[in-house]
């Protein structure tokens, strides 16, 4: 029996999870029966030895599949994240090469779908597409095409691209993006938080003056308003250092956006990770490659 709040994990998704968590032959990663039980008890407060998870067999892999198909969605999502963190810790320690193509990006996409974060215009009850590869490929093509445009055309092209990028991951702007000189302004919602957006595409990297100006705009808004500063050319080290820590702004550059699309990392997941890293370190700008290590 599957409970109403259980996630709908499709057969193709389960095959992917089998590969990611080394579930062939009834095993799960490098767990023994004892360490498997300890992991679930410590990380999730779950008794994975409960007979309810052994309806299809008592091996670790069969119990995990049953758990993923029947447990509460929030707990399943927590389990997938915890298992991934354990997998990566072991893989890095043992220097084991990655054997599953784009494992991290595909797992994040699956978590995104199970969380109900449907792209804008797609009802949450609509089954998600089998793969998001065409979406990422199309967005990457659009991003690379901007480099071929004249400076003025590039500005309007960047405006169109950003609209499409945010819409693709269910973060449609609450106000339409508008082009003002070399600056694009807008807003979006991420995990029930409102973010103002300031984006610039010109050749110079952003310094402390522009960051302070954007911070000043936020301070004129509601206290809970946050900001995302997108600079295609990046930010100066001196400007970030002078700007300081503990602000309500997170930053993203053109390389960050490219790596999201190249590695098929959902934008909303990436921004959530940047927010968490900013909360942990106070740093407004941490590169995608430093958060999502390969």
What is CATH's topology name of the largest domain?
A: Trna Endonuclease, Chain: A, domain 1
Domains (count): 2
Counting copies of identical and different chains, the oligomeric state is: single chain
SSE pattern, N- to C-terminal: HHHHHHHEEEHEHEHHH
* Residues in helix, %: 40-55%
Distance between the termini: 37 Å
How many runs of DSSP E, i.e. beta strands? Answer: 5
Integer-rounded radius of gyration: 21 Å
The tally of helices reads 12
Shape: elongated
Which regions contain 5 or more consecutive residues with pLDDT less than 50? Answer: 118-130
- Read across the widest sheet, the strand sequence of neighbours is 1-2-3-4-5
- What is the correct CATH architecture of the largest domain? 3-Layer(aba) Sandwich
**What class, by secondary structure content?**
alpha/beta
- Average of pLDDT: 84
Q: Could you characterize what this model shows?
A:
The protein is of the alpha/beta class. It is built from twelve helices and five strands. It has helices spanning 11-20, 33-44, 60-70, 73-94, 103-114, 133-145, 151-168, 208-219, 237-243, 254-262, 267-281, 288-291; strands spanning 175-180, 183-190, 193-200, 226-231, 249-253. A five-stranded mixed β-sheet has the order 1-2-3-4-5, with helices on both faces. Helix 4 runs antiparallel to helix 5 (103-114) and helix 8 runs parallel beside helix 9. The protein is elongated, with a radius of gyration of 21 Å.
